[in-house]
């Protein structure tokens, strides 16, 4: 019997409410969500079929059979294609998929497809396989279900956060040593890889690839010094921080498919008053937000506290569009912490807390982010690097 | 004036032949191909419009303006969204895109979209923006155009190959030292990062991300020891190679968006006769193939030489489905070196040469791959790690 996960029940409840007989997933993040299997390379489609009645079915190319069996918690694994002596359902996934849907009695039913991820060309193939089905969009069901993390996901988020913390310690030390952006980043990534190798035997750090590639190692640090902070996201350069500048360190780590984010702004020696005031304003806002991070608080309220705090400090012209995002299977999941959000915090939600300032005219920028878990009674910082004002 | 690339002329010739008035690209690999800009994070769409007449237009969110301007060779950059004091074309990309298409006089024309990559939900948005246009598929045009590499791509492939070679030297040394899979991989990745930091100031090693994440560092090594070679692709484990086993080292490197692949099988001490015979058979086939890697040879012929060589050596039951793939912006591009291929080699083509054997019943596997460039008169191995039989 399949060792199931609470998310399966949540998805099925949403399916029942919307009259969906089966979900068919191709998106790597979703096939992993419903099976625990990430083959890293997706040139041969990985498919999960979740019927309203019964257990999920994982379908993989025959050459991924052993790998899938060893990593997936789904026990009903079907094969397509030809490889070595494996017995498969047929030469291609299209026929194998049709045959599973027939077997489950849903080929003429209502089928949920990931319309925000499925390429048009594949959608047309699905229409060809399922001429009698009603095809509907499952994107919103997944986004909603993914808001609440299951125990296995939370356990892996803690591991990812620990990896990120080790990376941050190494990065801050490298800033203190006078390293350049790229040296800071590579020392930080090496520290995470060392911790992974020495302490996490059963953890995978692969990320989710694209159709043209795969991401073998998702332990990433990038560093932006001084005015390069306005780039927000860029590959680390040989730029050397100068005394009196701030240095932003961005770390994304992944453990068994679940992400954590840890970002810090380090003052490289005493910094100008304008930069110090921006950092102190942000640190104060984070303190104001902390007691609100508990079940029942509207996400929008965290944004509104930030907005009011920035206005009170004279930064009314610099209100960011959002102050964080949900995180989990994706490093950037779809829900934003912004004024428009209608989400109310519940236990099991995970998001980044990152109210920050960019004031290019004053050469002022801050970048501080932590990965937060909402618990039954409040919240927990999963990333635990030293907070407050950091100067080296 | 835009500093153009030969690929623009090739694409325009294909557009003219198919009556396409403009290409609109969202796929990260393609917007990079037509602009040189990889923002790493794609949560705000990056769009390139290539009209049949005139220069490409790069459209980015206002917060990517400075980054885009500094990295792209496209000079016509348009902004959408709101950020700081930037003046933009409007609050969202949809209106900005419609307005550029109006300006170019192609909004009622024939528009090429990437049907093998564009999600259905976005395709529907495009139908809404372009009610008077004829929407056609541009996927095949891109695949065909990408077969021939431009000088800038070849220059970057050489850098990626050099990175991969440094990673391989470190990995082979680590096998000799008795390291486990993960130690071998992390030492190899650290060596590539060190070379990047010390010798390649102007090179970015970011890869192309997904809608939920970004790949900051695409210098990847994974290692599979003994019977784990049958996994083909898996995250490195703590498995220690045993004397008498083969160890497969897989390296993917990227430089300014262009990939190289370098894979070797290392014998950890003397190996059983069956494993040695498999490696010698593959090495002999690679020698047979070498003189055929030149302009004018059908790709399928490289596969057929492999097939005949394996049959002659008694491996008729173990013919692989393909013996390589094209490579460039993608680590795995779409054209396979297989029996069905109709492609004929031309100067500027790049592919991996990787005829290999998997014989699970005999616990025999080989994994050797190099990145090859077809030149005017023959070929060049871009990866140059020691070949032949490797024993440590």
UniProtKB/TrEMBL annotation, chains A, B:
Q: Which InterPro entries match?
A: Creatin/AminoP/Spt16_N (IPR029149), Creatinase/aminopeptidase-like (IPR036005), Creatinase_N (IPR000587), Pept_M24 (IPR000994), Peptidase_M24B (IPR050659)
Ranges for the Creatinase N-terminal domain?
A: 7-148
**Residue stretches making up the Peptidase M24 domain:** 157-376
This chain belongs to the protein called M24 family metallopeptidase
- Supply the source organism for this entry: Frigidibacter albus
